[in-house]
Amino acid sequence: EVQLVESGGGLVKPGGSLRLSCAASGFTVSDASMAWVRQPPGKGLEWLGRIRSEAEGGTTDDAAPVKGRFIISRDASKNTLYLQMNSLKIEDTALYYCATMLHIRGVNYWGQGTQVTVSS
Amino acid sequence: DIQMTQSPSSLSASVGDRVTITCRASQRIGTYLNWYQQRSGKAPRLLIFAASNLQSGVPSRFSGGGSETDFSLTITRLQPEDFATYFCQQTYGDSWTFGQGTKVEVK
Question: Is the pLDDT of residue A102 over 90?
């Protein structure tokens, strides 16, 4: 059974950094295209970016609002996806979801989300 | 980036109604369009991929259509568990984006 479990969220001051983790089970992270999506309180979904499978080159794409500040990576030995978030802003406050696209070009598995709050 | 515009932003309906939500892309995207359902307090759930393909386990009362710039999600015979927010997502090219969402509420 495919499972994604996020961790690492919390309260951070503006300008600070945080690293989110997403522990995967039921599949191998290096074999899958994986992504991060966030949802600010009471608002819609925002695509942050993805990392392609190793077979597709393992490259990343980042959305414009987070380009240069957020970095997506993975550790195959831990079967874990990461989101390194730097220079955090108040508007980065959101529930952050880990997601994977297994065999289709759509997110068919989601984690439960981890809350990030940026506040002074 | 490709902008996705859903309409309406919200609608009121009753159990048994037929509901249609539309999504318009700011440029042609072929059939690189997915639909998701998000119930309150839950993670999104994939309903339709590649514009018209029903995801495994999704009831057949959900259907999707369209291509290039205009797409639709239809729910026939609305059920109590279908009151939720629905999002479209384009996956054309490298930068994927969601629509703003459509909330289906009880009339």
Answer: no
